[in-house]
Amino acid sequence: MSANLKTNNVNNTKKSSAGGKINAYQICLVALAVGINIAGGQIALLLKLPVYLDSIGTILTGALLGPWFGMLPNLISGIFMGMTVDIYSLYFAPVGMITGIMSGLVFRKLSVKRVKVLAAAAMITVPGTVVSSIINAVLFGGVTSSGSSILVQLLSHTPLGLTGSIFAVQFLTDYLDRCIAVFVVSIFVTMLSGEMKQRLTGSVHNRA
Length: 208
Prior knowledge:
mainly alpha
């Protein structure tokens, strides 16, 4: 009896430790998310769009793998883009990391199939927007590589002033950007098979 109990405990320990490992599917998803972030960010940069399109991969990773994995795509893509084509991406990498954490927390509470895009986007947006606005105001005075800088400069001549304009525009553009990202992610996730989702979460292991 005791021998069987010990054997079961050993097997459970092995399963727990295996479940805690990062598998190849998760690594590939993070790499894919980085590529999506870079591609989206480049499109927004070239077209001078008032949104950023560099958080779709981050939100996707957070939705599927949780908050801590959600931090990685924007950290990696922010460093890469900051050292190559857009120095501003490096400074705003912490915003993307916060977005990844919030995405993981929000999608833990909400079913992706029934996600309310506007509500989910708002919860994901607010913490990152506060940090983003502070970075923008303190370091750049509202002038960055994003097309939203044009809106900031236009509104700065209104009673809002420069600081008020930065916060107002930052929230509006961040929220619109997150709405687009959450909508795209919700469609993508619902298209994934149940087996693929299990492999991504590490709940499917190869049998010996």
